[in-house]
Write a structure and sequence with these properties.
The complex is a heterodimer.
Chain A (H helix, E strand, L loop, with lengths): L8 E2 L4 E5 L5 E5 L1 H7 L2 E5 L6 E2 L4 E7 L3 E5 L4 E6 L9 H4 L7 E5 L11 H10 L1
Antiparallel strand pairs in A: 1-2, 2-3, 3-9, 4-6, 5-8, 6-7, 8-9
Chain B lengths: L7 H6 L3 E5 L2 E6 L3 H10 L2 E4 L4 E6 L3 H8 L13 E7 L5 E9 L4 E5 L4 H11 L6 E4 L3 E7 L3 H6 L4 H9 L5 E4 L2 E4 L8 E7 H13 L3 E2 L2 H10 L36 H10 L4 E7 L10 E4 L3 E11 L4 E8 L6 E6 L2 E8 L4 E2 L2 E2 L2
Classes of the chains: A alpha+beta, B alpha+beta.
Enzyme class (chain B): transferase
Protein name (chain B): Aminomethyltransferase
Catalytic activity (chain B): N(6)-[(R)-S(8)-aminomethyldihydrolipoyl]-L-lysyl-[protein] + (6S)-5,6,7,8-tetrahydrofolate = N(6)-[(R)-dihydrolipoyl]-L-lysyl-[protein] + (6R)-5,10-methylene-5,6,7,8-tetrahydrofolate + NH4(+)
Amino acid sequence: MSDIRADLRYAASHEWARLEADGTVTVGISDHAQEALGDVVFIELPDVGAQLAAGQEAGVVESVKAASDIYAPVGGEVIAVNTGLADGPEGVNSDPYGSWFFKLQPSDVSELDKLLDADGYRAAADEA
Amino acid sequence: MGKRTPLYDQHLALGAKMVDFGGWDMPLHYGSQVEEHHQVRRDCGVFDVSHMTVVDLSGSDAKVFLQMLLANDVARLASPGKALYSAMLNERGGVVDDLIVYLTEDGYCLVVNAATRDKDLAWMQQCSEGFDVELRERADLGMLAVQGPQARARTCEQVNHVRAELIRALKPFQGFADGDWFIARTGYTGEDGLEIILPQDQVAGFFSELVGAGISPIGLGARDTLRLEAGMNLYGQDMDDSTSPLISNMAWTLAWEPAERQFMGRAALEAQRAQGALPRLVGLVLEERGVLRAHQVVRVVGVGDGEITSGSYSPTLGKSIALARVPAATGVRAEVEIRGKWYPVRVVQPTFVRHGKVLI
């Protein structure tokens, strides 16, 4: 069974989002997502400074099996990307919640409330 | 629910992620496809290939029938146990399937793809009209592939002394029958190894022994990246009923001599060959980060367009590789469109890795 953390919010498209103490939002993909993708070999990240709307395409995860888009779970400006993923994309498989993709300065923090909580995401992931 | 091999329950018990493959429920991987790939290149692993179709052919016309049916010439099989890789063509020279044919004591044994079983059997039956041959599908048999540099040595430790001696003595593309087992030094990974055809009710026991001895089970995912690195075609992807061997990097499997051997599809191939400037199936290497995938467009500036037929990430090279059908005049550089952007690729001979060595 996949690991779904109670302290995170989730998009139905399988990104997790964590509100940090400084008001920024860190984004990655869920354990369920990495399991479905299989071995991750390449990640295309957004540019720092990019303005993203909630639900907008923010990058691509390529596994050996397939490519899949990643979406911004909330809107905002990209303030950092995890450049370490370029050399160690497999970290997404071994530690999906430690292997963050990018950080956003959210334009509207309340958008986080529209995301799924752990129970909601578990229900959604079970159906998928 | 798909068809199941005798190993279905063991795959689940080993934690396999199961997928549909040509109507069969097969293991994609048992955790990490990339790790399984490395395991085969460095040591060895065991694959369940019991979904593949085994057909026995006997009868007084068996040889002349296969000389008509197959584009390679079974006359090249000098003694029982020898194996030959061949295309089976339609009248238009398109590939109905690719297969391995073994000469046996009583005739021939053909191993064809699982996904093409129905049409293959129908085509063989149709072509056999007027020949004294008997085709018999061996659904009672299963098949394991043990592949990797240590495959033969490790397998020898799990079989009796006599069988082990026979395995050690095998030359590449040669096999032997031992009771109701048939063991051949063939495979689909570019490494040394064995393919073992055995009664269905013995498959689970032998697989357990191999896995129990520490030989890793390997899924279809790694099977695909291993064959791609080895530059081996996958039927339905790199060639099919509409593509001839001449444009599928399979010209080496065509036996043109003797000239009077009128094999199925020969006239069409001769016409194609005479016409010249045929597309080629080549290898591509992406030097930048990204992954080449089937059906992406290949652009060769000043020459024309082509298409990727198989693409993936190569665990051995640590970069993406592909097979692509490109115009005849393609040189050493091309570009591939990935999500709207054009990436430069190197055009190479489509054998990327053999026996653990990088060739490009």
